[in-house]
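Minutes, project huddle
Topic: does the predicted pose make sense with biotin bound?
PN asked that the exact inputs be recorded in the minutes so nobody has to dig through chat later. Recorded below.
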Amino acid sequence: MRLIHLDEVDSTQNYIKLHPEFGDGTAVLASSQTAGRGRLGRSFASPKNLGMYLSVVLPPNTQNITPIAAVAGRRALARVGVDCGIKWVNDLVVERGGAFRKLCGILAELSGGRLILGVGIDIGQRESDFPPELRSICTSVALEGGRTVTPREMAEIFLDELGRALALDEDALYDEYSARCVTIGRAVEVKRVPSDPGRTAVAVALTRDFAVEVAYPDGEREVVFSGEASLRLG
Ligand code: BTN
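Predicted holo structure (tokens), as shared on screen:
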């Protein structure tokens, strides 16, 4: 892999889109992003030197990239001393005080015949570094007692684990993802669109293609695919 380290950029995802010459395995790390993006049009706060803001170019036919990146991110965080779970489909979380706090988000985008995987990991934030509305739902390597690590070192560890996770066969990937998925067995709220009031259900199983089967109180069951609906842990 080739790692390009930038000081500041709007978004490492956008930077790769502006550089069609970057081929498979090229990774871009930024010390800060002025317009970091998350899934579903959300923004991703990217303060200078406090997190790992990384995008990687992968072949467009890579299957199951979000579960692969989640497994790689979980293993990378374990290497720096943070044991986290996977909140379906693309967040890594730590349970503290009965609530889940996010410290890693994953965004996979297809653009111009390339798959661009974006990963953000909160590393050095103290509680006051998060906006007040995020303080109870976000955390960082530092807040979880992980070892001191620079964003660059975190990126190197993540890329190492990404290489290993890409080599997993389907069964091994499914087993590791499902064993660490905190969503299964919990109450969730199923929302098809953001304005949807949401329907309470229980996430009962992870299907082989990484969708979640939910059961509603009236006994109805439904399979929810990523991108089709969001699940909020209830
Ligand atoms: C999410 O939580 O919904 C996904 C967050 C993805 C953030 C990363 S940071 C590096 C890359 N550049 C971006 O603008 N977004 C991704």
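Observations noted during the meeting:
- Helices lie at 12-17, 65-79, 151-166, 170-180.
- The CA atoms of residues 68 and 165 lie 6 Å apart.
No decisions taken; revisit at the next huddle.
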